[in-house]
Amino acid sequence: MNLESTTRTHLPFGDKHDSPFYGRDIVSVRQFDEDDLDYIFEVAHEMQAMVARVGTFDLLKGKLLANLFYEPSTRTSSSFTAAMERLGGSVIPINEVRYSSVSKGESLPDTVRTLERYADVIVLRHPDVGASAEAARYASKPIINAGDGVGEHPTQALLDLFTIQEELDAVNGLTVTMVGDLKYGRTVHSLSRLLSKFDVALNLVSPEILRMPAEILEELAESGTPFSEHDALDPVIPATDVLYVTRVQKERFEKEAAYEAVKDAFVVTPATLEAAKKLMIVMHPLPRVNEISMEVDADPRAAYFRQMEYGMYVRMALLAMVLGKA
Ligand code: CP
After folding, report:
1. With a 6 A CB cut-off, is 79 part of the ligand 1 pocket?
2. Which of 11, 145, 154, 162 is 20 to 30 A from 75, alpha carbon to alpha carbon?
3. 285 CB under 6 A from ligand 1?
4. Domain 154-308: what homologous superfamily?
């Protein structure tokens, strides 16, 4: 795929039940090929233009999204809600499952088979790896994985890739440095897999105990993606085009002491970026704790707040596509 030449022709919106995305689950980035990515980003551009032009419109009027979150979320939950409402649809929010019948012991298969009786699409965040795939086996309506434990976060990776393309005009030829919790951070698992479809080089910077899982390193090697592991950030900063910073995932640690030992291992400050290129970007899936100092926010290279807005356009595109309207 040549992302530089992505076309931005007007896509007539309407019923597209012959679309390859209609009715599909979105469970892993592994399901996307380069044509799919082109198509998603083309529709996301259309969504961006429509939001700028009219704010909200009725493409998904009459459609319902069930937002089923077994783990906390600000961005994913609210951006899917914003996406659905900007498209004229409605949302059933289950952002705190302890107030739902899950607290009475209801299983995931029964919960999704209940919600699909009311809703047209289900966005699911769950602490267990593979939960979205399991839900998809039981549901007949599309399931969108909004994070399955330490597994994947495919819609985040799509918005991350869209951000890189929008900010730097290309993906091929870039050096991407991922820093922080590469073991438990599902966003970097999905993004590594997605970037391996491109001509990129990866620097993987983490404390020893938070290295990228072997399974993902093997996939990078199989795809021919050059990567190297590091325990220091400064040496790789000058060649970096995208600095992707992640939070150390406290909630995944068994022992508090182990978390305390690594939580501040890497902190990006204005001094860190002094050696960086003028044209590069700093990304973060957020939430941030300490790993990027707030002084960095004013640097034009800090793209993490713009990144969130790109996410809404990508999620609007995905909802419209799986519901057969784009
Ligand atoms: N990036 C992300 O998944 O953020 P939330 O946990 O707030 O949804």
Report:
1. no
2. 11
3. yes
4. Aspartate/ornithine carbamoyltransferase (3.40.50.1370)
